[in-house]
Amino acid sequence: MEIGANNMALAVTNLGAEIKARTELRVNQHTPEAVVSDIIANSKELLREAGLTPEMLLGVGVNVPGLVDSEGGIVEKAVNLGWESVPLRELLQPHFGVPVAVIDKGDGGALGEKLFGVGQGCSDFIFITIGTGIGAGVMYRDVLFTGARNAAGEFGHISVDPSGRRCLCGNVGCLEHYCSAQAIVRMVQENCPPGSILAGREDLTAYDVYLAALENDAFAAQVFDQVGTVLGKACVTLIHLFNPRKLVFGGGVSQAGDLLLAPIRKAVKEFAMASSRYDVEVVQAGLGPDSGLVGAAALVIDDFLSTF
Ligand SMILES: [Zn+2]
């Protein structure tokens, strides 16, 4: 399962991490108790639809945005959910009766892409997820680079504007305030010219901005160009730090494809040092928006297979 600030996705997969049944729901209440209760109710329904019983499950993998202590199954901090020190495994395990593995969104996506997506056969790549927030998972020599306290990969919270607005994480000018789905909507609301087809639109989403760009709305295309350029410059920092072979983009906003990736490639080409940008590929996730879901399943499958 994948928990987000606005939506949640639950899926049943086989041992090859192929999704056999899935459901998506809105996250209306963010308290851990409300989210867990939604998970329990919808899991039962999903298993019934898939013709399975809870006893047939090998395990449950959960993908969560933010800082996660995977060993303890604890969500240390998820700013977009308002969670701090939530013992998610402890809350879920009694309801399922099988092992529950918890991983952060960036790492989960990187694992999914490594085992089943465009990261297959690639020892060094960085998965970047762009949705309500921004996160990253660093695959370094075939192993997830998690840092001293599992806090590595908080790409959305590097500062790209030292005089920018204060973020809930404590830093100022964080990348995700300029490049997330929410940022795209805010940019349109603040700067939309009367000539754009987005002018005066209410309940706007980043997907609407994408559709407008596809309809050749110049302002919508310019928003994606601006977002891609800021992201690209931030990616140059990642390239200089880790010298990856690939930058793999997942999450909802990345579904915009070349509208977003073209300005990223341009910024990388223009600003990264020659030796480190050599051979860096900027690509869309092979698993589309499902990298995180598949990664959560992969965590369980990997654990299970390693017992043989
Ligand atoms: Zn931040």
Question: How would you describe this protein?
Answer:
It is a single chain. The chain is α/β, with parallel strands linked by helices. The protein has 2 domains: 103 residues, Nucleotidyltransferase, domain 5; 168 residues, ATPase, nucleotide binding domain (Nucleotidyltransferase, domain 5, 2-Layer Sandwich), CATH 3.30.420. Helices cover 40% and strands 21% of the residues. It is globular. The protein starts with a strand and ends with a helix. The model has no long low-confidence stretch (mean pLDDT 93).
Give the arrangement of secondary structure elements:
Layout: E1 2-3, E2 7-13, E3 19-26, H1 32-50, E4 60-64, E5 67-69, E6 74-78, E7 83-86, H2 88-96, E8 100-104, H3 105-116, E9 125-130, E10 134-140, E11 143-145, H4 176-179, H5 181-191, H6 206-214, H7 218-242, E12 246-250, H8 258-271, H9 274-277, E13 281-284, H10 291-305
Parallel strand pairs: 4-8, 9-12, 12-13
Antiparallel strand pairs: 1-2, 2-3, 5-6, 6-7, 9-10, 10-11
Helix pairs in contact: 1-2, 3-10, 6-7, 7-8
The structure holds zinc ion.
Residues 157, 167, 169, 171, 174 line the site of zinc ion.
